[in-house]
Amino acid sequence: MKSSRENVASAIEFRKPDRLPVIFDAFGVSDVHRIKWNEIGTGDHTQSLTFDEWNCGWSRSEVKNMGQVTIHPLDSWRHLESYRWPDPDDPAFYEGMDARFAGSEDKYVLTDIFMVLFERMHSLRGFQNLLTDLLLEQEKVGDLADRIVEIDERIIENVSQRFPGMIHGIIFTDDWGTEENLMISPELWIEFFQPRYRKIFDACKRAGWHVWLHSCGKINQIIGDLIDVGVDVLNLQQPTVLGIEEIGRKYSGKVCFLSLCDIQKTLPFKDGEAIIKEANSLLRHWGTDDGGFILGDYGNGEAINVPLWKKKIMFDAFVSADRWSEPSR
């Protein structure tokens, strides 16, 4: 029987896992152990305003969620002169990471960078500013993107040097889709963003890590391009928006999917029968006989109005439909 680490790696690399790998902290079940460096991220969610390590201000209402960036430190280019960039070589960034490996002995160890490029750019500049920049200020916004890429690369290099062979993958976040399409033209994405992602992902490959990417929305037009630059695991949480059969037909066997029933259409609003049907469809269309699927929970069920009993129905449906465990063969 493979360990959790081996089972996850087998699913990612299409080497026949022994069973469906899961990341489901709501039920205390996970094949993955997360190791964070000292990233502030969205900060203390009990506070109405917090600042991350990039000095972006996160505001919250009475609705429980991570909030959104409302203070953009580079909303004017003139602020560049006084802006203090995060220092990825500061030892404080990595202080205490050693202790976070406790309990990871047979697990797949995953680290992360939150808001890796596009999201970091619009959190710094503001969303409307950034979209305008991409058309009218390509030199300035290119310099901004390159500086972010350099910082990401240094974080990857520093973590891998401090913990050689102890980390197996890294997950990034960059939401790219609306409910209907990509946020920018695919041509602009390929020209501006794809080569920069390649640099970040190449740094991960040099470290010996799998590349995981979370991206919400209908990103069908760039999935192939993301695979081309090194994405190993694609975290898609709105499968009905993308089209379960379409995505399976085009990309099953080419990338490992980290997914679950749709967090906006199915889990909040559909009944148990629909949840079970979708779970079966996802495993059938997105997985292969050699692997390619990991069940990953959406952590904040309260924010999307999904009670635990619905998550339990979904979890049981995926486990029952597991195409890799011995009884299913």
Using the 3D structure, state the CATH architecture: Alpha-Beta Barrel
| Large-scale geometry | globular
Distance between the termini: 15 Å
The neighbouring-strand order within the major sheet is 2-1-12-11-10-9-8-7-3
- Mind summarizing the main beta sheet? 9 strands, mixed
Radius of gyration: 20 Å
The CATH topology turns out to be TIM Barrel
Poorly predicted runs of 5 or more residues? none
Number of domains: 1
- Helix fraction by DSSP (H/I, runs of at least 4): 25-40%
SS summary, helix count: 10
Q: Bin the strand percentage.
A: 5-15%
Which structural class should the secondary elements be placed in? alpha/beta
If you average the pLDDT, what whole number results?
A: 95
Offer a quick outline of the entry.
This protein has one domain (4-328): Alpha-Beta Barrel (TIM Barrel). It is built from ten helices and twelve strands. The chain has helices spanning 4-13, 118-125, 127-136, 138-162, 186-207, 223-228, 239-242, 244-251, 272-286, 308-320, and strands spanning 22-24, 29-30, 32-34, 49-51, 57-59, 68-71, 108-113, 169-173, 210-214, 233-236, 256-259, 293-296.
